[in-house]
Protein 1
Amino acid sequence: MPIPEVAQLDIAKTRDAGLAILRNGENPFAFSVARVGTEKDCRDYDVPELLDSQRSDLRAIVDLYRDPKQPSRIFPIVGDSGTGKTHLLTTFQGELEHDGFEVLLLTAEHFSLGVDPLDFFLWQIINHLLAASGPGKRMLGIISDWLTGRLLVEALRHLAPNDQVALIPPRTYSEKIKLYFGYRRIFEKRLKAIRDLSSRCDVPVPADIRDSCEKAGLTPDRVVSVIEQYLERTESRDVAGHLQRQLHGRLVRFTLKAEREPIEDFFNGDYRKGPENLTDSGKLPRRLLVTLMGVFRALQIPVVLVFDQLEDVLETHTESHRRALQDSFSRAVTTLVNNVQNVCLLIFAARGLWNDILQNQDAYVRNRLEQHFSLPGRPSQQEITMPLVITRSFLTQLIQARVRVPLREFNTTGLSPIFPFEEHHLQELEKETSVRACLRKLADVFNRIVHAQTPLGSTALAATNDGQMMAQLKARWQTELVAAKKLIAMETSRPSLIPKIQSALDCWLTYLQEHGITGSGGWSKVEMVSDAAKAPFGYLNVIRFETSDTPGLGIAVWLGERRWRLTDLERRLEFFDAIPCAIQTLVLLRRDGLEALNGETKVSYSRAIQHGRDVRVHKMEQQDVESWMAFPRWLVSVTADISKEGNSGSKVLQNFVRALSEPLVQCIETWRKKEGQ
Amino acid sequence: MSTQVIQSANDLDIPGSLRRRGPALIEVLEESGDAAPLLRKGFVLHSGKRYLIRVRLQPPDGFGCVKDVTVSTSECFRTIVPIVRVEKRSLVEYEVTVRARHVHTLPMANLTVVAINLVHSSWGVLSIRVSMVIRPTFWNQLAQCWGWLAGSTIVVTLSQWLFSNRAMLEWLADPFVWTLILGTVALLIGFLRVASRFTMPFVGPDEP
């Protein structure tokens, strides 16, 4: 029987060639945790069959929020750790972008105890829109373009045809003469240009508005003035009307004149400036929230607030603090849905944590968290559940999706669909309930088959001695540093990043205080003080040294590379006037150090020093900011694995953090001493 | 956690500037179906001719739609066919047929305004004022020009004759004579005012 032998020989050759290609590449099963920067991997390795039902539920939910009268509601997406919740969110985001379905998707990364839910929500929106790059920057462009198109069309429609024609200024002297003497053709041409402009802007997604205006013969200045006059005529004279005029006017300038600074200044505090009735009225942040929601409603852009990995968002180190944070979170989301119309809340949580939250709430909160929702054509449900069973078909597709990328154009004819794995490997995997566990096992088996490596164990951190554990911690730290670098690169120099950095620093300082890594003297309390009225400049890390009530050291981060604005400095200095005053010393961190002080900021700084205030400007490095941002995620990712190692693991972790924190603790030691000591 | 309910019926509304209330299109068409010429001061209409004023509405959105349209005109227009709602596939239009009338005694164009009122189901009335220029017909203009020319010539000749004759000046000093002259002028003006309301028999098509 020569023919089968030849065929078998060919298959063996193909298999060897395939293994050789796989050997030269990366292990495709090593990627098992979706995070910042892994969007492409999520798309490439997605197996639609597994999460199709959940994705279609999410799509149906978000579709509901195109209706401006849809009430706010909480939609929990619950599943065990590693079942693909973050992957689901990432691929869902990609699907929305691919289909051109615009959604304001806000991902909350931190939640502080006692925070006002409405202020929290407002700043989530503002920080997202003011991001220097990524989806936030894109969304600001979309909102301002759509809004400008809508306002321009309505402004033109509120004018009589002869007034519309008069908007286009004559370009040449002959045109001027023809217009004066009423040359009919020239009027007809202008009316057609205006009607073409209206039809180009009156579509759900208007084309380049600036270009359309120029084609119609309208300069950006002229269009801005037409829209401002229209806003003056149509908006009321009360506080809401003033905020709308300001917001719309600045967004129009952003689209037509590419002026970004006015809109940034507006969100960073200029919304408080205005006529007397505005400055005298209270709750301006809330009024601003209503104004912003009105814009999204009018443009039919659904507003979705996402809490991804709730266990990370509510991460803390003490049991009592954890319980308080969970209670605060539950009440906050309940308050949000009760008070703000048209907001969709998606909460991605681990099953255990979600059940824990539900059990500890009173009936009022629980009823809102557990409320059934109904989607068109589907039975009502209480939550979206992640898949509980890993099927054979899914495993086959998973392997094919992952192996396809390194093999690319290699002809796999004759090889098993689960190449390079064998049937018995899949039988073992069918017992698993989470995709991540399957991937980790597949990564090990892949190493064995492709690289002929001996198994390391079920987790990467199952190290047998402290040295190995330390090496693993260091490797994870490097990975998180890279992720933080990417995140900062996207948002560099933006005030919107300040709350995130201060929260991350708070996490680090809290860990240091709880584990006694405080240098020569102890710390009584570490906290993050926030004042919503000061916008992103209202966050301050405070370390109290003597007792938990005495004023301590305040640390404020300012990332700007432009001229330091006086209002920003003054907002930070106002913390000295707060009652009760939380700080004795204020350290202001800037990339350019004392050079940042010039002109009026220098005068204000000198005045503060003369008044006996201990204010210091300290130069910080880029890698400091990256480390602070990396720390919370790194801590969460290693804590679970370290806890399996018992006391020895905790000690290794503490030693690692001690070494890592040495420069930070030294700085705090210096700041603790009085000036001149 | 202290927070205050900020939601009210008004919060579900959208800002005044983003409300879709304006008409999608305003057209003034001649009987032939061509658009009436548009100049700096408005649409140019000719006295005695029929015109169709058409208002096209925007499609309804989630906040309602324009439920009625009215057109208010001045004495320069006479309504021939009252306003009607016309639905063409998804488009909704309102049309009114009017006849333009020149009401000046002077041989110059009339400037007038047509108010188009759009009644929205949620947000009340929006009024847009469209300027119109009504020109008298050529014969009307010519007749008026001749009339004014003849009148001015008579006045100038008469005044020259009066001021050159001493006896006539004395006669003019009599108050009775002045009363007679002023009365005649007033009667003449009254006659012209009444006469201008009627279209001359050789101008434009007949009244229906």
Note: Helices of chain B lie at 138-164, 166-172, 175-196.
Protein 2
Amino acid sequence: MTVKHPLFDDPSRCADARSCTAADCAERASCQAGQRLPKLQASRRGFLKATAAAAAALSLARCGKDVFQGRFSELSKAEVKEIISGLEREYRKKYPVNRKGKQLITVTAEPPQPGVVFGYGLDLTRCIGCRTCVHACVDENNQSRKPQIQWIKVLELEKRRGVDLMHSDPYYNPPKVPEPGKYYLPVACQQCSNPPCTRVCPVKATWKEKDGIVVVDYNWCIGCRYCVVACPYGARHFNWAEPTVPEEEIEPNMHYLGNRPRMKGVVEKCTFCIQRVRAPVDQRTGKPAAERDQNIPGKGRYPACVEACPVGARKFGNLLDPKSEIRYILENKRVLVLKEELNTRPKFYYFYAT
Amino acid sequence: MKSRKLLFVTGVTLTVGVSVTVGFLFETFRQSRADSLPDMRPAMTPGMRPAAAAPGMRPAAMAARRPAEKQPVPVAGAPAVASRSDTLETNPPPFSKGIFPCSQCHEDMELNAKRRTLTEEHKNIVLKHDEKNRWCLDCHNAKDRNVLRLASGKTVKFSESYKLCGQCHGTIYRDWRVGVHGRRKGFWNGKKTYLLCATCHNPHQPKFKRMKPLPPPVRPEEIRP
């Protein structure tokens, strides 16, 4: 009996090069695929089944609770605490030494403060394009060194053209900056009030928090990269390969939605240094978030790029606080946002101080 | 006739009064709603409107909405040092090593107030700061070298040198006080550092030195996992 197989119908094709003996191939024309196929199929099917089951069991065992973790916004406080302490254990084991010596890694999931919406100001008359912010950001947020991921991109533009993103160059490398006739425009996530990136996420792994920061849950991201395409500012970055950060350069102060180490196949972006700005320090005692009394409003540090900028071009504050620096800028300076016509309503304001 | 006129006047008064009251109440209601819902409508916070409106705004309108000028409050929720007096807490002045107090040399020296190029001491100081119109003793106090001198003749300490700089650079001084000019470290809703002008700008050559940029990003075609 010969069983016809659609793939191997053609008698001129050898049924299975690997299983055919030399003798079989000699009489290729008469090689009847069907004669060996039933047996072969059965064994292959069995093999595949067994392999799949083993792989599934192995991966489940390795992933542990990650696989069964719910949506971040729906987790109870106890569940969040459990997940965070699990991550802490994992990271402490993986990175016993970090850029602050042997300081233990802490992971928090500090929620947004009520009455706070963050805004960012960048003074285009001051920026000299030195890229100090780019590298401070890489260090603070544990961005992959190889393959390289940088959340801030500094564009070099010509003064005579104005804000003309089409003729910008992010790869400029003159011996000295600023160059005459040029100005510099650093671009990172604009933390839109109407973010196009969160809307396209098919699994809602990215969303806008109450304090205006657009975040990604790396455990929930499926890596479809819709958001990368939707972002008009090129602010989202995909981990095409397993990100690498040298152990001694890891920043130990981490946030679940922020700078904790990412994995291959997830999207990441600027979070206004969520691990710094979300009140991690006790107002009275100066203790870090983990030890602070949750009833006392904490105070938040500036993002790393704000503190790093050598010319003080970067400003940060609470948009709902009329006394904040950012409000002063909005009320007194000439302000622009990028691609205003797209109605993304960024909370990243470029301004001219003079 | 008289009663009809009276009726008419009363009617008009009543109508106007009622409509004004209703309008006022409605406005108050809207205001209070807007005030009570800051979190729900982040895009409509007052601070955001000028982003679009600022370029075309009339000067008068700009001046009207400039509340922070009179009482510069640099910090939200921080110790209100700045709002009380005009003296701010800053870093110590960045003196060259061993140079202060100036009186250790100048006390015994005779005052030579003649404008000249210094050949014996302070040779490394080259003035490129409106040098045609000014020289050392316009800012350094001739009688007591340990302090600086304002245009009015009043002396200020080196730790308050921003008052001296602010005499000419008024707009920058104003921005610096509210935290918009200059580098800041610390907490966005707490204490933050104030750096003296001279920390970043060499007072004798205040223009920023050009610097080497950090390495550019790798081009996409060169990225290999």
Note: The two ends of chain B are 98 Å apart (CA to CA).
